[in-house]
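Progress report, Aim 2. The chain analyzed during this reporting quarter is listed below.
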Amino acid sequence: MTINLSTISITDLIPQRPPFVFVDKIIDFNYETYACTTSFLITENCLLMENHRLSEAGILENIAQTCATQIGFVNKYILKKDIQIGFIGAVKNLKIDNFTVLKETLTTNIEILTEFADMKIARCTVSIGNKMIAHGELKIALKPNE
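Predicted structure tokens for the chain:
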């Protein structure tokens, strides 16, 4: 199964709504590993900015929403079920080496390392161009669908 990723609206996959959306589009999805890569252009309307830079909270939110995008994609297009709400259960070894500025595009990749029941552990990297600016792991707890 292959889906044209450019036709997917991110807000169909995640529970967040503007202006609190920190993912613009899916740029890659691996159907074997379920790894997901997204992009996000930093604009002047972006929330969580500090001194014209995306804050650490903004970068973490981008990572969390990339996880939500991956979960939403798997639920909607592979498992054929409703979107689930997730919560950050833990952040492990998150290192942010640099902050972005206006008009830069984040490329964020998540790879699911472990899944158990309604818990997932994802390895995350955030880059601008070829330079990695953040990496770490997130534990995501999913709210069961009702």
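The chain is about 15% helix and 40% strand. Residues 56-79 form the longest helix (24 residues). These observations will guide the mutagenesis work planned for the next reporting period.
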